[in-house]
Design goal:
With 183 residues, the chain is of the alpha+beta class. It has three helices and eight strands. It has an eight-stranded antiparallel beta sheet. The protein is rod-shaped.
């Protein structure tokens, strides 16, 4: 029988921490929320929030005064010598830039100055923004085991259990009587 200190403990669904937070819900740390490069820009007419992820630059555009989503506008994004039109996704309510040349430029580490041109009906405006793209995290040269989500003590426990199982199988195999030997 395993001692209680070897038994792992998990929080059940709906469990609460010491401050009443849900332990089974998604985490909201800034490191996770800010993992994808993003920017915000605003003028007297519009505000834009952009995120570079999933093979596109996604833009959410609202009217500044009312926070009303801007739909079916003409949107162009430029950075350096590269520029591209954004397509409107009616199902998501966002605009997406999937131009390979612009995305290649914006995916490079560093600061990228952006000029976003929005034309919605009679209103037109230029928004300036800066997209900050960090360097990708370096992978450990000695540890290439894929997903690293298990804590060290869990990996240690698994390897110990496997080692004990192999030792038990070896002991049974060694003690197994051969042909002609009494059982």
């Amino acid at each position: 029988m395993l001692s209680s200190w070897l038994m792992p403990v998990w929080a059940g669904p709906g469990a609460h921490g010491p401050n009443g937070e849900h332990l089974d819900g998604p985490t909201t740390s800034n490191a996770t929320a800010d993992a994808a490069p993003h920017f915000e820009a605003q003028t007297e007419l519009f505000e834009v929030v952009g995120r570079l992820q999933g093979g596109e630059l996604s833009l959410l555009i609202d009217r500044f005064e009312t926070n009303e989503p801007v739909r079916q506008a003409t949107v162009e994004v430029a950075s350096g010598n590269a520029k591209a039109q954004a397509r409107f996704h009616a199902d998501l309510g966002d605009y997406a830039v999937d131009d390979a040349a612009l995305l290649t430029l914006l995916s490079q580490p560093g600061e990228h100055a952006l000029v976003i041109t929005v034309t919605a009906g009679e209103d037109s405006d230029l928004l300036d923004a800066v997209l900050q793209v960090g360097t990708p995290p370096l992978e450990s040269a000695h540890d290439d085991h894929g997903d690293h989500t298990w804590p060290l003590w869990v990996r240690w426990l698994i390897w110990t259990a496997l080692g004990l199982a192999v030792a038990a199988l070896a002991a049974v195999w060694i003690r197994k009587p051969g042909k002609g030997e009494p059982a």
